[in-house]
């Protein structure tokens, strides 16, 4: 079976290499910055989009598929691949990516959206958390142990963040909206906070990690934090921290998007491959 890959980050490059090692022929486009410098068996760099699509029945792209809603996400290429141009060429193909636009579903394309796969979403939370811990350790001069850590959000990533930072000896504060989440946070013996209550505890916090993609740490709340606090925002855009105002008052905020692809691409690629292979077996 041939596979064609269009765009994507280091996760997708590792995925291409895995399929190539299995003996599959992999045709790539939008990854030439990497594969032109790293020639590998069974991996071909195509010269145009149509050639890449014609080579295979299965077309794979990145997570996220697009960052601007106009072009394919191609960090390893100077090529601007328009979503509309790609869509018109995918008729009759199996198309696999993360965050596929709704207008792709109006065509005769078999879409598999990786971001809608619950298993992959949960598994992706693991490298996201480990990468966040790595950033926190590298950016601070103090141990995680005995630090006061505020996690905003108690979803998939928030739950694992609380567990892992707790295991490292941090004092865990966790903010959530749902009463049920606050009850579970309390059951875990963490300190549960509503978002309004953040102000009361802000002066104690050494590290904040936000997982909520809406504004939860706004200008008003930022005024109450110590200027030495480190804030890491792992939520998808626009994030949940007022980064502009934080910068104005001297609080460091790190926007950490796409951690699995940047920090743990091999593990993330294995998860993606497992999901794709199961789809292909159906």
- β-sheet strand percentage: 15-25%
CATH topology of the largest domain: Rossmann fold
Q: What does the radius of gyration come to?
A: 21 Å
* Largest beta-sheet details: 6 strands, parallel
- Element pattern in H and E: EHEHEHEHEEHEHEHEHEHEHEHH
Total strand count, please?
Answer: 12
Write down the overall geometry.
elongated
* Proportion of residues in helical segments: 25-40%
- The CATH superfamily of the largest domain is NAD(P)-binding Rossmann-like Domain
Cross-sheet strand order for the largest sheet? 3-2-1-4-5-6
Low-confidence stretches at least 5 residues in length (pLDDT < 50)?
A: none
**The number of domains:** 2
Q: How would you state the average pLDDT, rounded?
A: 94
Q: Roughly how many Å apart are the termini?
A: 15 Å
What is the CATH architecture assignment of the largest domain? 3-Layer(aba) Sandwich
Number of separate helices: 12
Secondary structure category: alpha/beta
